[in-house]
Write a structure and sequence with these properties.
Metal Binding Protein, Guanine Nucleotide Exchange Factor, Chain A; 2 helices; 9% helix; globular; binds zinc ion
């Protein structure tokens, strides 16, 4: 350790957001309401949160691909899912980093990073990092089950 001043760097993934790609799937609010159940609409389109330990995929270990329930885009894979015991399905990485968009979220008096589907800009959940989970990325993509649809591997 040299103790050199300035050696401390603050890494903040939200300080310089990437420009967001335009959604590929664009529907009106009425069209989304017709396509989704009221529960799905409340989380995907109004950025709600399902209650912990209630989602159908919280502890699922089935091998397969998790798609966006709103538009069908591939978002996560079962081999990136881990048991976080937080009450929601947790992934340490998206299937493809371009599959999701990260957006700063300062609602509810908290500084969080929102995760959205890159294809339709629906809300999926939040990502947290540096919590010490023994995963390759030390990130926890905390995703609502209701935003996902598991397509089991053949
Ligand atoms: Zn989507």
């Amino acid at each position: 350790m040299t103790g050199a001043p300035g050696a401390v760097s603050v890494v903040c993934m939200t300080s310089a957001p990437r420009s967001e790609p335009a959604p590929k799937v664009v529907l009106s609010e009425d069209e989304w309401r017709a396509k989704l159940t009221p529960e799905e609409f409340a989380v995907l389109r109004l950025a709600g949160t399902e209650r912990p330990y209630t989602g159908e995929y919280t502890d699922t270990e089935t091998e397969g691909v998790y798609e966006c329930r709103a538009c069908g885009a591939e978002l996560f894979r079962s081999d990136e899912k881990f048991h976080s015991h937080c009450g929601w399905p947790s992934f340490f990485d998206p299937a493809d980093s371009d599959a999701v968009i990260l957006r700063e979220d300062n609602s509810l008096g908290m500084r969080r990073v929102e995760v959205l589907c890159a294809s339709c800009h629906s809300h999926l959940g939040h990502v947290f990092e540096g919590e010490g989970y023994p995963t390759p990325t030390d990130k926890r993509y905390c995703i609502n089950s209701i935003c996902l649809r598991l397509v089991p591997k053949e």
